[in-house]
Design goal:
Structural class: alpha/beta
Bound molecules: iron/sulfur cluster
CATH topology: TIM Barrel
Radius of gyration: 17 Å
Number of helices: 9
Number of strands: 9
CATH class: Alpha Beta
Shape: globular
Number of domains: 1
Order of helices and strands: EHEHEHEHEEHEHEHHEH
CATH superfamily: Aldolase class I
Distance between the termini: 12 Å
Length: about 280
């Protein structure tokens, strides 16, 4: 595992317009969560966010859309955004996170300069019907297989704290390992009152054990990323995620919740003697 910490910034280029029913997701229109909703973020704003992320030390910049999957219009928009970002911040590794995707759609994104695709399995195949009824887990798994077939960098992970059992967590990690991802983002459920799920029941100790378990079960993944829910889950013990096996974090805001200021994360890494990665191979 690299000792340098890979920083990634996420940009919701479209927000809050998804018709699916994932019970943990405030971007679903079904739950009427109090979040920003828009079809397409102006390209100029996206470019500004990309430059700010790069200047703060991010290597990855992830273009996220809120929908079940790609369609022709979304593919066109994501490609336009990718080209615009490369003009202002060519150093960034472009990642797309746009839901289920066919091999052809992924190859189109790849040809626009997108190197990696993120699609999470979210939870175990068995538990999944309890958190989503509008599309099957198998479509998520197949999209990840398509990413590998497209020769793109596969980023896939999941979310803990939805009410799943430990057996479900192990099962999800086994499924993730079978896909041989380069990066594994793990999220911790951040409760929103508009959602039907109970708040995340995990303790900090349990969450740290899950970071360790993820590292243990995916020894070949180049990066274990603690993504959404980090601040809420770990509070003033965020610095412990690195000793537990994480070597990547999201900096700046998440999709619908605020992260802490980027400089606070940089200060945390400096205080731990951890360097920020300045190049990426995988
Ligand atoms: S498909 Fe994605 S954006 Fe839509 S509700 Fe599920 S997790 Fe949220």
């Amino acid at each position: 595992m690299s000792e340098k910490i890979f920083l990634c910034s996420i940009c919701n280029i479209n927000s809050g317009t998804c018709k699916e029913d994932c019970k943990f997701c405030s971007q679903s229109v079904r739950y009427k969560a109090d979040i920003d909703r828009y079809k397409q973020k102006p390209i100029k704003n996206i470019q500004e966010e990309a430059v700010a992320a790069r200047d703060a030390g991010a290597l990855g910049f992830c273009l996220v859309t809120a929908d079940k999957g790609l369609n022709d219009k979304t593919v066109t928009f994501v490609c336009e955004v990718a080209e615009a970002v490369q003009k202002v911040a060519p150093e960034l590794r472009l990642i797309a996170c746009n839901g289920t995707a066919t091999l052809d759609q992924l190859l189109t994104l790849k040809s626009a300069g997108i190197k990696a695709y993120n699609h999470n399995l979210e939870t175990s195949e068995t538990f999944y019907p309890q958190i989503c009824t509008t599309h099957p887990w198998s479509e998520r798994y197949e999209t990840c297989q398509n990413v590998n077939k497209a020769g793109m960098v596969l980023i896939t992970g999941g979310i803990f704290g939805l009410g799943e059992t430990q057996e479900d967590r192990v099962s999800m990690l086994e499924s993730l390992a079978s896909l041989k991802p380069t990066s594994v983002p793990i999220n911790f459920y951040h409760h929103n009152e508009a959602l039907q799920l109970q708040p995340n029941p995990l303790s900090v100790e349990e969450a740290l054990d899950l970071v360790k378990l993820t590292r243990k079960m995916l020894p070949d993944a180049q990066r274990i990323m603690v993504a959404g829910g980090r601040e809420l889950m770990f509070g003033d013990r965020q610095n412990e995620i690195f000793a537990a096996g994480a070597n990547s974090i999201v900096i700046g805001n998440y999709l619908t919740t605020a992260g802490r200021e980027m400089n606070k994360d940089l200060e945390m890494l400096a205080s731990l003697g951890l360097d920020v990665a300045t190049s990426v191979t995988g």
